[in-house]
Design a protein that fits this description.
The chain has helices spanning 2-30, 57-63, and strands at residues 32-37, 44-45, 49-53, 74-80, 85-91, 101-109, 112-114, 119-121, 135-140, 146-152. By secondary structure, it is an alpha+beta fold. The protein has two domains: 1-30; 33-164, no CATH class. The chain is globular.
């Protein structure tokens, strides 16, 4: 009986893990491309390797800089320009979106608003490829879930080592 329970639990865990992987892969291929202006912070962590801490302008426009005490998890609405760059318009109150708008899900953790991630990790020694990052490249699902897929420069060119672009 214990073996059957352990086997069933293992199958359930693998099922959930595979479903999560499938949904993320689908978001990468089918998600709407949204570029968010960012403000890079500290580019190095001794314990984690090289990374760029990220802060997004849309977050600052929606909530101000610093800690947020009165907000729970939710979504903000950004309007996309012709280049795909999103600018904060309003907090989501359930109204329908215009064709040039996208909803972005955020979470409030430790009184800070976070999108999909607050850091972009890269291989040690590759910081020079990301120093001039200006935009975070996101893939966004209709639900507002988003994934950071890369960084872009002032001219919206994808950044990274030559083989990674």
């Amino acid at each position: 009986m214990r073996k059957a329970i352990a086997l069933l639990a293992g199958v359930a865990v693998l099922g959930v893990a595979n479903w999560t992987i499938y949904s993320r892969e689908r978001l990468l291929t089918e998600g709407r491309l949204v570029l968010l202006e960012l403000a890079p912070v500290d580019p190095r962590s001794l314990m984690q390797g090289d990374y760029m801490a990220l802060r997004f302008r849309a977050t600052d426009d929606a909530f101000g800089r610093g800690r947020v005490a009165d907000a729970g998890d939710g979504r903000i609405i950004v309007r996309l320009d012709a280049r795909g760059v999103g600018r904060f318009v309003r907090r989501d109150a359930g109204e329908p979106l215009a064709a040039d708008e996208a909803a972005l899900r955020y979470r409030v953790r430790e009184q800070r608003v976070k999108f999909a991630t607050n850091a972009f990790f890269f291989q040690e020694g590759h910081a020079k490829y990301y120093e001039r990052a200006r935009y975070g490249e996101m893939r966004v699902a209709p639900s507002g879930e988003l994934l950071l897929t890369g960084l872009r420069d002032d001219n919206l060119r994808r950044m990274g080592p030559p083989a990674a672009r």
